């Protein structure tokens, strides 16, 4: 049986690392808090009988061997980094659930044919270097030089942060990248981060696809000046241009009515950033997602054209840097079938649903069969200290995860 008490206790203990006064967590990748979290999770992995290592991309990996040593592993993964003031469940339940699956087998003395690995991927959220899914991209060979040059708010590059964490980024290609077929299957359990399961009164759901996010960093260049002496008609205020572009993102997405396309400006840096200074430069993010890649790219194209026009009209400079562009991904039909079959044995009706959020699973799908389980969360709230999922729901998700992992690891 899945140990509810242990699951709950571990979720709460991990939530204490980087705890914020609002009751949430701030655990940025490769930080002091991340190190502490990795050490705690690593101790749990060892208790579950796993060998543990951190690969050169900062992924924490636990592995338990099967009866056939050379067999490709079944991998269960998610992440333990968080957004700046996030919740206790996002990513965490997938890693703790994965450890529970292995610990349960270990305690019952069940040894499947294949090895099982549990991975906590590095910087899934992208909240430190503003570029997410780093660890899983590294694992499928989808990172480039630019990823290492990105800087955090203190001006430290990701390369420096990796080195300071005791890792050697030069070894990523050799030691992190896994080729097509090197993994038998990849499974991820995650909170839904949306309202669908709650609406359907279903504790868990089976994911059939993940929307593809496109993420761009836009810089609007104006001219800084004195807020008291510079007349209104002589200004090149970068923030006013940026604000107009943010509203344009909303307008364009609204124009698509019933389509699930969503656009967000969630990060904005105003420079030089003084209350008495006209903003000279603004750097901000535009995030657009859809399950239809063509429609999503069309929205991005319209945003870019419109933003260029706004900047021209206001006499502002404009630059557009693509930070992330991932295709929408379908979950493996054969894993979905196993999930349906196993959930029926548990006498559960699991609805099929789409993931609007990005997950490490969508990268892993590049090299292996992938499946995801969603757990209902309160009011669909996530990336917020109020994020909450009921332990009974998490335990059901973990039970399904366990059944599916065991099934896949036995053949
Ligand atoms: Zn997550």
Automatic annotation (TrEMBL):
Pfam families: M20_dimer, Peptidase_M20. Keywords: Hydrolase, Manganese, Metal-binding, Zinc. One of its GO terms (molecular function) is metal ion binding. It comes from the Bacteria. Its cofactor is Mn(2+); Zn(2+). InterPro entries: Amidase_Cbmase, Bact_exopeptidase_dim_dom, Peptidase_M20, Peptidase_M20_dimer. Zn(2+) 1 binds at residues 79, 90, 190. Residues 210-309 form the Peptidase M20 dimerisation domain. Binds 2 Zn(2+) ions per subunit. Coiled coil: none annotated. Zn(2+) 2 binds at residues 90, 125, 383. Homodimer. Belongs to the peptidase M20 family. This is Zn-dependent hydrolase.
